[in-house]
Amino acid sequence: MLIESRPGTDPEVAALVTAQQRELREADGGLEGQATVTHDDIRYLVVVEDGRAVACGGIQALDDGTGELKRMYVRPAYRGFGIARQLLVALEELAFQQGHSVVCLETATYLPAAIGLYTSCGYEPIAVYGEYVDNPYSVCFAKRLPVAA
């Protein structure tokens, strides 16, 4: 398994984000509305297994000290092998390298596996923020990153 940086314009990143958005629409029964596209200001990491991109996630700066985890997704056939946990650690390292001391994220109440991953990795609930405030299904979490020794 290889974790590598890719631009948001990478076709495999776009395919993973499209699959993630499709799965979210199916899970929420169409509650969230229109799919979101990739953003140029998100720094993506991709997990490559046997030459195929199987997972992705990104970090987007909210402010100087805070990065937001975006588009975390693992293809269904690759779930249950710890890929998401390894990717999350790599994304936290990327956020730290970008100068962020906090990583926050939004997920949905109807995604218990995601909530379980984040809480087991030290993320704590915070108030819903930004564009998620009016979404009754949004739940937000944050984690303070360790300070370099």
DSSP summary, beta strand count: 7
Shape type: globular
Q: Kindly provide the radius of gyration, computed on alpha-carbon positions and rounded to a whole number of angstroms.
A: 14 Å
**What is the total domain count?**
1
Please give the largest β-sheet.
Answer: 7 strands, mixed
Q: How far apart lie the N and C ends?
A: 29 Å
State the strand order across the main sheet: 1-2-3-4-5-7-6
Write down the secondary-structure element order. EHEEEHEHEE
In DSSP terms (H or I, runs of 4 or more residues), the helix count works out at 3
Instruction: Look at the structure and give the CATH class.
Output: Alpha Beta
Residue stretches low in confidence (pLDDT < 50, at least 5 long) are: 32-38
At a glance:
The chain is α+β, with helices and mostly antiparallel strands.
Explain how this protein is built:
GO terms for molecular function: acyltransferase activity, transferring groups other than amino-acyl groups. The protein has 149 residues and is an alpha+beta fold. It has a single domain, classed as Aminopeptidase. 28% of the residues lie in helices and 34% in strands. It starts with a strand and ends in a 5-residue tail after the last strand.
